[in-house]
Amino acid sequence: MNGPLNTALALAADGVPVLPLRAGKLPFGNCSACTGNRCGGRPNMVTPGTCGCPKPCHGWAAATTDHRVLTSPAWARPWRTAAAVAYHPGGAGLTVVDLDDTEAITWARDNLPATLTVATTRGEHWIYRGTMPSSNAVRPGVDIKSLMQYTRWLGHGVGVTAPLPDTVRALAVKEPSTARRAPQMLTVPLRGVQGECRHRTPVFLDRGISMAEQRITEARSAIHATVYRTFLAVLSTHGRCGCLTEAHVARLFTAAQAKGESPRHCTDAWTNALTTLGL
User: Fold this and answer.
1) Using an 8 Å Cβ cutoff, are 70 and 64 in contact?
2) pTM over 0.85
């Protein structure tokens, strides 16, 4: 066994989902069955380690703790040529605050609770116990890597892993947020749609949004499909009279991102629902 595979097996034994990285900190390419996302990304992109393909694919979702998969013939070449080992923080119940430079480190020391710290090439990883949606550039030199994201394994670090604080969770709600920016088309009545409002009272609309949030929050599988169908249902009922506001749509985006959906996936699902309904 080579060094990267030995490291990966040791981490997997501790419950950390791992995958090989090639040069440039990149995951190995999708297998032929999934090239161009022909498989539809289901259920591969929902739960790490559930990809049914015989080779590592889908980046973070290829991460697994299964020793049989890690040592299978299909994974032999990736491990043999691997430049590094990566892991899926969210799959291990962790969140990594990636600090890229000395200014970001100084900010973290002044604003975040002390936790397990791992040195990187340019800065530090601050690792907390708990998960949240991943988000890049939450502030200068700071990325958050947790759900639906991978990061390099750089050692065990120094210190004790602290619980994920609200201070870090709040970083993902940045201005201007994608969740607010994506639905700006709804700040005025939808173009070409002047139907009579059926809401009668604000309670009718608010109840519909609350039910949609609950449906997304309670989803246990097929998250992508559930988010799209929920967006479609909301727009079918409430999207033809111009009553939806950015605040309503931001609530839906927030619920979806709490389940691990990326801002891009939220935007795509919303746009596809609008197109399907001809809005």
Assistant:
1) yes
2) no
